[in-house]
Specification:
13% strand; 8 helices; three-stranded antiparallel beta sheet; alpha+beta; three-stranded mixed beta sheet; single chain
Length: 294
């Protein structure tokens, strides 16, 4: 007699029905966990200068990342230099090492209407890995050695104020922005790194002044902008110290302190964009000269 038992074995397991509500609850829990991580790290930034400086280091490297994502990177992998998700690394032929913990950041999702009629943006949790967590051969990024004069010209490019040499600055002051006449005065005879550090700081003041930007501590904000611009452009940061933070930072809630960091990020970003425009024009002119010489 033929055996038909095989018809009743090896049946596929029943598919579990997708539960939209459970999925949404899980995603919301993930987001809340990320927001809690941000708030916790922001609190540490407000009371620990080393933690705040580490955030600035990350924001200097990842200048296009939001403040919240720079904070998340600083909290999870402060030495990160290049991030991508698993699939993006794989497309490039790079594989993530086994046992690596993903770095969690946020990416913009869909827009939605708020109760007050305004438009909001939802955020999704995204898992990424730093290049140090992959099998990619890590080669130091080629240093862009820029002529000091070009670096200073780029810093001054499209500035919202004028510049002038002065020998009448107070003792101990090398560069100073005077809002009443919209001039940054520079002490005569300074070396390029000293000029860059001072100009970057006073340019930050000028941008905040002309843009009507307010913040809790303009002096510290300008100082932090100068630090990030130095890190970004290979200028020595020797002499910078974050041992003493503004006392008010320790009393701020996470949202307010993120806003302070946001001013630093945005002002540094504006100056960086102006610098890059001059660099790009210089590179284009150099290519044209090289092409004409052939």
């Amino acid at each position: 007699m033929p055996n038909y038992d095989d018809l009743f074995t090896g049946q596929p397991a029943p598919q579990e029905e997708f539960n939209k509500d459970a999925w949404a609850a899980k995603k919301q829990a993930e987001r809340e966990s990320i927001y809690a991580m941000i708030d916790s790290h922001v609190h540490d930034m407000g009371v620990d200068g080393g933690v705040f400086q580490a955030y600035l280091d990350v924001q200097a490297r990842f200048d296009l990342y939001s403040v919240s994502n720079a904070i998340l990177i600083a909290a999870q992998c402060p030495e990160a230099t290049k991030l991508a998700d698993f699939d993006s690394w794989k497309v490039d032929g790079v594989y993530v090492k086994r046992g690596q913990d993903a770095i969690t950041i946020l990416e913009p999702g869909k827009e939605y209407k708020k109760d007050d009629g305004s438009t909001g943006v939802s955020y999704n949790v995204k898992k990424v890995f730093d290049i140090s967590q992959t099998r990619a051969e890590q080669r130091p990024a080629p240093a862009v050695a820029r002529d000091e004069r070009l670096l200073l010209k780029a810093l001054m490019n499209n500035a919202p104020c004028r510049f002038s040499i002065s020998n009448e600055l107070p003792e101990g002051t090398n560069v100073a922005y005077h809002p009443q006449n919209n001039i940054i005065y520079v002490r005569q005879g300074l070396d390029a790194p000293t000029i860059f550090r001072g100009l970057a700081q006073e340019l930050a003041r000028a941008h905040m002044d002309k843009g009507g930007i307010t913040c809790e501590s303009p002096d510290f904000t300008a100082y932090s902008v100068s630090y990030m611009l130095c890190k970004r452009n290979g200028v020595s940061v020797e002499g910078f110290s974050f041992d003493r933070l503004p006392e008010s930072y320790a009393m701020m809630d996470a949202k307010a302190l993120r806003a302070e960091a946001g001013v630093m990020r945005d002002v540094a970003g504006t100056i960086t964009a102006d610098m890059n425009r001059l660099f790009q024009a210089q590179e284009k002119a150099q290519k044209n000269r090289d092409g004409g010489a052939r």
